[in-house]
Amino acid sequence: MRPVYCLHFLSRKSVQQLLLYAERLTRERDRAQLELVLVEALREILGASGASLLKLTQTPEESLVWPAAVCDANGPQLHDDGLSLPEDMASIEYYPLLEAGLQSGQMQAAGDTTVFPLRKADGDWFGFVEIAAAHALDGAQVVVAERLLAIFLNMIALLDYSEVDTLTGLLNRKTFDEYLMRILSSLSAGDDSRLEARHLPRRRRAPVPGQDHWLGVVDIDHFKRINDNFGHLIGDEVLLLVATMMKAAFRNIDKLFRFGGEEFVVLLKPTEAEHAHIAFERFRHDVAARDFPQVGRVTVSTGYARIRLGDQPSAILDNADDALYWVKENGRNQIASYETLVADGRLTHKDMDSDVEFF
After folding, report:
1. Which are the catalytic amino acids?
2. In 62, 141, 187, 295, which residue has its Cα 20 to 30 A from 346's Cα atom?
């Protein structure tokens, strides 16, 4: 049993700070701002020189980490806006303390650095918090840090619950709308002021030439036939298996949504057109190659489109839908790029000019 430490190192002012930050953490509904509050609280209350929140993504080949939010003498800074590819992503093998924390699931300390592993309520890894201080944290400071991290993870669990489709575990339609609006806002002129408000370092704002966000609409072929022939319970199993395969086929940093019924949406973080095509084709191939229990062969059709500066949300969805409908009318079990179909003359681009300003 963990011993109970007296919080003797906290002054009256520090106790007030602790309560203030606890209130701020439980009030926040924006993930990025929640992360900024966390690192600011840890640095201020523990008297540390710096506090960093690092996120973790795992592939069959390796585990990758990158800084998401940092607080040092310059104040809290957001290093991962949730829209573009994270900079400074590296294999965890370059960070021995983080790697030890991943393997053991326990706090690690060396010299003036302390690392706390973060796992969500469902057991999935979130990442790590790294504290740099003039000296090793004592027992009371560790308890305070762990309680703040517990509040943070509880808030993450609440946000996950409100944003996730209960059947598939993918993000829901409401979250899609909000995320797409954020992407379009980040591409728009005037982006600087918005990102300054999120404490995003200026050097991280420039887009990479040749890399774009992509939106793909995925539809399970003849899904009504599956429900009619095998029942809705089996249909739900198919939806769940397809969602699980989506998580395996796409990068952890891409966003996957259940859009309703048998339709899914994928938002790819910035990448080249060729790599977007490869990602969607890999998923299509994986589904077609799988033997689904009781049902047998299941296929998916996908249409995808580039997300561009000045696009309206409805226009992007319409473009991807047009590509999807083309696939449906031309054999199914395929993927198609809206831009390629237009360039080849198989679709006609619709002019969506409007005087309506979305941002």
Report:
1. 262
2. 187
